[in-house]
Each structure stands twice: as structure tokens, then as C-alpha cells.
């Protein structure tokens, strides 16, 4: 490797080292901060010990030297290219200049030829544990000094190490505070309240999302354990206190779920977890709280839906059993039995499909009529959207199935010209203001009807019982010569 290549390699290495040093200096967040008495004490002590008018804690930035503390100098910074401390930084070791006017490096320096007329300089590097020099602790005199030897430099370095320890402490505190802020943000985002209970003084400290979970007044109103206990719902307080005492006696974790009276949100469910720690003989219970109200609500809803599903399944099987049994008794042949059972089971399926696509508890009349239109395209329907309970939905589906089946066999749907109009409206009775749903099934252009049926079939009985028992309504039928008109009225709940 040539000499020129060596020079380029060395320059590149120095640039990388300097960039790293500047980044480390930036990580200390010390530049351009306010004066600090901790550093001023050290520079004053250095001025007194070494009997000099000027003592500085100097940080060497990219283009300047900046003074964190300055005794005997009003300027807060000077350009780096005239800074004595820059030489200390570059050499990374203590430097003594007994007579600046006689030193070719500084004899023409404006800080020597002009104010503050530096004659003597001694600087000790401020070095991090991993070897990066941030600046110096330096002392300056405007008179020649040949009395500054190894012992004095050792003392100056000791003071520089104290400055560095103060810088490290300050950096640790800043990092701790930054981590605390990050933790607080994370706890707030995660909606976690953090607390610490001193069981001797009964004092509580709060952090994280405590104001969100316990109430916006948490820092003023809940300063003691008793204050927090008063916010817990009375019925749950005993088991919370018992869980805390059990954790204390057994040296195990504390865990409980309980309700509180939140001042802004009303009753809320919280989960609490914590552990006891001993600190100088004082038992501290530290823990967290989570708002589990939505989880509890989902559990309650799931239990409700499960019970409702079991209830529906029992009703469904009972209905299917009744249909199969009664259809068998009324059928004239095995083919007739299969056909009628299949049609009625399809009616049940239509009702269940509508219910399953909603909330299990109710279903849309529009959704049911769309299912009917798919099975019987010549049934035209019109009416406003309304929801019916599960029982009413099953009943209406069975009623429509019986009407449609009879229309296909004997009525308007038995020929190509006929059709059915199915409409419904809401009306209010004059007596008590109760609203009713009024359905009208009207067949047209079917075979002329001369007389109503001579006897009541099982399908007719099914319609009558469903209207009366399941819908709590009224039924009227008119065997008009143009086709059957069936009117059903039921309370709108």
C-alpha cells in the first residue's frame, strides 16, 4: 500500500470515528442546555484549587466548542478551529500548554493575541466508558505557568471524571424519564392502570391509564386504599379485600374481578392483578387493572344466546314432532304424507334461515317474503319492514306455507293465469291505541270458488291455531269467487 493510500485510509477512519463521537455527544442531550449548579461547583472548585481566573466544562461539537459551565468567561461558545480543547479531543489525552505565546500551535491564535489573552492552558478529556471524548474540563490563565506538573494534572483529571460521572447520571435520568414516558404512553394505549399500595400508610400511587379506568379524579379522590375501596361496588368489596389478604398471608399473587362505580361511565367491570414486595420492612402491593366490561358483556350475551338457542332448538324439535305426528294422522296416503311433511319442514327451514341471518331472537318480514318468492314466484308482496319474534316468525312461515300449498293444489296457483298478492299494513286501534299488523292474502284469476270447504283440514287447523296461539291475533277468510281472501291481524310488539 502506498503512502497516499495510507493517508486516505487514515483520513477515512478518522472521519468515521469523529462521526461516531458526535453521535455519542448528541445522545447525552447536553448541548445548549441551561447552566447547572452541579457543573458550576466543579469549575469553581477547579478555579480555586489551581488559582486560575478561568475554568470551563467544554463540549466540542462539529464546528464549535460550547461551554456547559464557564467561570471567568462570558462567552458561551467559540469556533472549534481556534479552540485549545480541540487538540485535547484529537489527541484523546490530557494536554498542558505552559506558554501559549511560545507554542507554534497557538502563538497566532486570536484567543492568545486577543481576549481573553490565554497564556497557560491545561485540559483533561471528558471520556465515556467506551472511549469517546465529548469535551474537556480545562483551566486557563493569562500568566505563564511552569508549576503545573503531573500531580496537578492528576487532580484535574479527577475533577474531569466527576464531571463525566455527572454527565452519565444526567443521561441515565433522561433515558429513565424517556422510558417512563414511553411506558406511560404504552400503558395508556393498552388501557392499563398501574398502582402501588403502601399497606403501612394506606397511600396509593397511580400511573398509566388510571384516570381512564378509575375516573378522571383518581389523583385527587383516590389517594388511599380506603378511597379506592369506596369506589368498588359494595357486593364485590369483600372478595377483593379477601383476595388481597390471602395474597399477603400466602405470599402469592393477588387476582380479582370486581365492579366499580365509575364517576363518568357508571358501573364498570375491572380485573386486578398484583404482588406483594417488602421494601425496608414495608409491605407494598403493586399491580395493574384492566377494564373488562366489554368482555363481561360479551360473556353475558353469549350465555343469553346459548340459552335462547337451546330454547329455540327445543321449540323447533317440538314443532317438528307435532307436524310429523299430526300430518301423519291427516294424510290420505304415504305420498300425501311425504309431500305435506316436506313442505312444512321447508317452511320451518325458511323461518330458521331468516332468524339465523339476524340475531336468533327476531327476523325480518322482508327476508321471509324473499324466501317465499324464491319458492313461489307468483306471490307478489308489499309492506313496510318490520321484525317479528322467533315464535311469530315460525308461525307466519307455516301459515304462508299452508296458504301457498292450498293455492297450488286448489286455488290461484293451480293454473298459469292466477297469482297471489300478499300485503300488510300497520293500523292503530281506536280503543287503547295498540298497533296491529294486518296481513291480507288475496288470490286472483284462479279457478272460481263456489263454496267454502265442507270440512276443516289439518292445514286449516294449523293456520287457525298458529294465528290464535302463536300470533295472538284474529283470522278472517272469504272464499270469493275470484279467489280466497285471508285476513290476519296480530299485535305489533
TrEMBL record:
Xref: CDD domains: PAS
Chemical reaction(s) catalysed: ATP + protein L-histidine = ADP + protein N-phospho-L-histidine
EC number: 2.7.13.3
Keyword hit for Phosphoprotein: yes
Coiled-coil intervals: none
Annotated keywords: ATP-binding, Kinase, Nucleotide-binding, Phosphoprotein, Transferase
Ranges of residues in domain Signal transduction histidine kinase HWE region: 308-385
GO MF term set: protein histidine kinase activity
Domain GAF, first and last residues per copy: 34-177
Keyword Cell membrane: no
Listed name of the protein: histidine kinase
Organism for this UniProt entry: Sphingorhabdus arenilitoris
Amino acid at each position: 500500500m502506498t503512502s497516499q493510500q495510507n493517508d486516505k485510509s487514515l483520513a477515512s477512519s478518522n472521519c468515521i470515528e469523529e462521526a461516531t463521537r458526535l453521535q455519542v455527544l448528541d445522545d447525552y442531550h447536553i448541548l445548549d442546555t441551561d447552566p447547572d449548579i452541579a457543573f458550576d461547583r466543579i469549575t469553581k472548585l477547579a478555579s480555586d484549587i489551581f488559582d486560575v481566573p478561568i475554568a470551563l466544562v467544554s463540549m466540542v461539537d462539529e464546528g464549535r466548542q460550547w461551554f456547559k459551565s464557564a467561570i471567568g468567561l462570558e462567552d458561551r461558545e467559540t469556533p472549534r478551529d481556534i479552540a485549545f480543547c480541540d487538540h485535547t479531543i484529537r489527541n484523546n489525552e490530557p494536554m498542558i500548554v505552559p506558554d501559549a505565546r511560545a507554542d507554534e500551535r497557538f502563538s497566532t491564535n486570536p484567543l492568545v493575541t486577543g481576549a481573553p489573552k490565554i497564556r497557560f492552558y491545561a485540559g483533561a478529556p471528558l471520556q465515556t466508558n467506551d472511549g469517546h471524548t465529548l469535551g474537556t474540563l480545562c483551566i486557563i490563565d493569562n500568566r505563564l505557568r511552569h508549576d503545573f506538573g503531573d500531580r496537578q494534572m492528576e487532580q484535574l483529571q479527577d475533577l474531569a471524571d466527576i464531571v463525566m460521572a455527572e454527565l452519565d447520571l444526567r443521561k441515565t435520568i433522561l433515558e429513565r424519564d424517556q422510558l417512563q414516558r414511553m411506558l406511560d404512553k404504552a400503558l395508556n394505549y393498552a388501557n392499563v392502570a398501574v398502582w402501588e399500595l403502601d399497606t403501612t400508610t394506606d397511600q396509593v400511587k397511580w400511573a398509566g391509564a388510571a384516570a381512564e379506568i378509575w375516573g378522571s379524579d383518581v389523583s385527587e379522590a383516590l389517594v388511599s386504599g380506603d378511597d379506592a375501596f369506596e369506589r368498588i361496588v359494595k357486593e364485590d368489596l369483600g372478595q377483593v379485600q379477601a383476595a388481597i389478604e390471602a395474597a399477603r398471608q400466602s405470599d402469592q399473587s393477588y387476582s380479582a374481578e370486581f365492579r366499580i362505580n365509575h364517576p363518568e361511565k357508571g358501573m364498570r367491570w375491572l380485573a386486578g392483578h398484583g404482588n406483594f414486595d417488602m421494601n425496608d420492612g414495608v409491605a407494598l402491593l403493586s399491580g395493574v387493572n384492566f377494564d373488562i366490561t366489554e368482555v363481561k358483556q360479551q360473556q353475558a350475551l353469549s350465555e343469553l344466546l346459548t340459552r335462547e338457542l337451546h330454547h329455540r332448538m327445543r321449540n323447533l324439535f317440538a314443532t317438528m314432532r307435532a307436524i310429523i305426528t299430526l300430518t301423519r294422522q291427516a294424510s290420505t296416503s304415504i305420498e300425501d304424507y311425504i309431500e305435506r311433511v316436506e313442505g312444512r319442514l321447508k317452511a320451518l327451514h325458511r323461518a330458521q334461515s331468516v332468524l339465523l341471518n339476524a340475531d336468533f331472537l327476531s327476523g325480518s318480514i322482508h327476508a321471509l317474503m324473499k324466501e317465499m318468492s324464491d319458492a313461489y314466484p307468483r306471490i307478489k308482496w308489499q309492506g313496510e319492514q318490520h321484525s317479528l319474534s322467533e315464535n311469530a316468525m315460525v308461525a307466519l312461515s307455516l301459515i304462508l306455507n299452508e296458504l301457498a300449498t292450498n293455492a297450488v293444489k286448489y286455488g290461484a296457483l293451480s293454473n298459469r293465469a292466477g297469482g297471489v298478492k300478499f300485503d300488510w299494513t300497520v293500523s292503530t286501534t281506536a280503543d287503547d291505541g295498540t298497533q296491529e299488523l294486518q296481513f291480507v292474502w288475496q288470490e286472483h284469476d284462479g279457478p272460481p270458488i263456489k263454496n267454502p270447504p265442507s270440512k276443516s283440514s289439518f292445514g286449516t287447523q294449523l293456520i287457525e291455531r298458529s294465528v290464535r296461539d302463536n300470533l295472538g291475533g284474529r283470522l278472517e277468510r272469504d272464499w270469493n269467487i275470484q279467489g280466497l281472501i285471508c285476513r290476519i291481524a296480530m299485535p305489533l310488539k
